[in-house]
Fold this sequence. Notes:
Low-confidence stretches of chain A: none
Helix content of chain A: 55-70%
CATH class of the largest domain in chain A: Mainly Alpha
CATH superfamily of the largest domain in chain A: Winged helix-like DNA-binding domain superfamily/Winged helix DNA-binding domain
Shape of chain A: elongated
Number of helices of chain A: 6
Order of helices and strands of chain A: HHHEEHHH
Oligomer: homodimer
Amino acid sequence: MKKELPRIADSEWRVMQVLWEHGPQTANDVVKALSDKVKWRPRTIKTLISRLVQKGAVKVTEKGYRYQYSSAVDESACIQSETKSFVRRVYQETMTPALAAFLEDADLSAQEIDELQEILDKKKGG
Amino acid sequence: MKKELPRIADSEWRVMQVLWEHGPQTANDVVKALSDKVKWRPRTIKTLISRLVQKGAVKVTEKGYRYQYSSAVDESACIQSETKSFVRRVYQETMTPALAAFLEDADLSAQEIDELQEILDKKKGG
DNA sequence: GGTAATATATTACACTTGTAGTCATCTGTC
DNA sequence: GACAGATGACTACAAGTGTAATATATTACC
Lengths: 126, 126
């Protein structure tokens, strides 16, 4: 019973990432965590949180008279779904040449190369 | 003198891909090319083309009394810029997990896998 | 040269997003 | 228990998107 993932907008990703990284927290905690990364007013962040709650991406629990927010959707599921739709949109059929260009272009350590090769090996092996 | 790339919206990508794939063409050609891929009315596609022209992503030349449209921005530059902003948003700078996810997600033939592996081999050896 | 067909331009409209402001409420403090 | 300060709810508003419809201009054909 996989639940529909809500669409998470660009700015909302920043909030989700905070919630995924640290557990349940208050709006203020999120504001604090983001304060050195983005230049948004606290209100803006509150709005983003509310929208995420509406979308069902974040859940609220009352803790005393303050709310605590925590993510309601799985991080890797979101990343995967987002990646899939991105790949489909931008790369479409021509995935391989693009991937090739990317690999050529990327600045990878030997270890990272190994990791990627392992993925490919596994794919080939089936 | 690199020109600013306009932001291309999701649906607009479909149009750009047609223009990149086949050279200059009329609005109707684009409509025809897309007709089996999407369920948009021709008007909708015309609108998308107009917006792309406004944004400077597509240029118009008069051919007789019909317009011909062709892309005004480089495909790989767009792909690269789109990918960069995607990676920044979802993966936060770290390219390797993104690449890994791409590779996992991609539907690759054995031969394509070989090609990619060769690239990685060369990179490592280099 | 008038008319149907076709192409392009203008307009529409609701939803999402970025970026907040203002109003109402709860709570701890004196 | 009244009030200041913190917190959350409701409201705002323009730009961008998805998805077109209607109106106007151009042209090929008879």
